Amino acid sequence: MKKLLTVIVVALASVTMAHAQFGIVGGYTSSTTKLSDAAKEVTSASLWHAGVAYKINFGALALQPSLTYNMKGTTIDNVQYKSGYVEASAGLQVGLDLLVARPFLVAEPFIGYQVTGNEAAVKDVTNKLEWGFGVGVGVDVIKHLQLRVEWFKNLGALANASGEQVTNALKDTNYQGIKITAGIFF
After folding, report:
1. Predicted model pTM
2. Are 30 and 44 in contact (CB under 8 A)?
3. H/E element holding 120?
């Protein structure tokens, strides 16, 4: 029985490794924050993201966990606030292999931790832990290049409840926006 179990585990690991790829990803983030009660002038802050990914193909399905550094931000009263998060995500892709290209839909939950912020007031009052999801479309070209467009939304509150002015402007809000990502897989 042990031999049979060992053979099954080795076979499954071989199949998974044969269809798995390590990749480097990066791109453009346009992050916006909704402010229902506070600032009159809110615009998007165009930022970036970069990291590594590991894609495991299971035919029409693929799992792509990734670890990225993602800059998000907003502008309130002509001041741009930026926060950098280390994010872990697990993208589930459903696609169609057309030999040269593989178009797919993706759903991607994520969790992150804030490691940088450009304004001391924001850095002190923002929640360090973030979580949310993204949905989008993408295409793998020749199995080594990936392009994705994804809409994301943080689900937790951006700021802790306190009496500071910046906190009042950011209270009960969170980041949402669009990410455009390119990846190279080996």
Report:
1. 0.79
2. yes
3. helix 120-125
